[in-house]
């Protein structure tokens, strides 16, 4: 009898706890597009912040490398890397600027009337 009771409790207690949890939690449903927009903005802000810090760090390394180098070829390579770093940073931040200024202009165009 005790084994049967233990088996029943072992099988039903997790199910009962799960059902209590499911019914006790208030369901708050957001629009899928609002959630996606919030996630995209959050991820982009983190990427833009990291890219800015890395661009500043790599620019410092390139400038120090140019100042300490006695070889013209290494100086030219540092200048090339500086150009690549600045172009990549401008593209990453340009995407955000484009979205920030163009999206409000297009906000009402996707509706059906």
What does this entry look like structurally?
This protein has 113 residues and is an all-alpha fold. The chain has three helices and no strands. α2 runs antiparallel to α3 (72-102). The termini are far apart. The model has no long low-confidence stretch (mean pLDDT 82).
The largest β sheet comes out as: none
> What portion of residues is helical?
over 70%
Distance between the termini: 68 Å
Q: How many strands appear in the DSSP assignment?
A: 0
Q: How does the helix and strand content classify structurally?
A: mainly alpha
Quick rundown:
This protein has 113 residues and is mostly helical. It has helices at 2-24, 32-68, 72-102.
Task: Kindly list the characteristics that best describe this protein.
mainly alpha; 113 residues; elongated
Sequence-ordered SSE layout with sheet pairings:
Layout: H1 2-24, H2 32-68, H3 72-102
Helix pairs in contact: 2-3
């Amino acid at each position: 009898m005790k084994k049967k009771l233990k088996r029943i409790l072992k099988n039903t207690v997790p199910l009962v706890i799960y059902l209590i949890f499911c019914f006790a939690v208030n369901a708050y449903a957001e629009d899928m597009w609002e959630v996606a927009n919030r996630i995209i903005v959050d991820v982009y802000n983190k990427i833009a912040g990291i890219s800015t810090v890395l661009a500043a760090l790599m620019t410092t390394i390139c400038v120090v490398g140019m100042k300490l180098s006695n070889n013209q070829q290494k100086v030219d390579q540092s200048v090339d890397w500086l150009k690549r770093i600045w172009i990549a940073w401008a593209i990453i931040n340009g995407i955000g600027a484009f979205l920030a200024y163009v999206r409000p202009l297009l906000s009402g165009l996707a509706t059906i009337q």
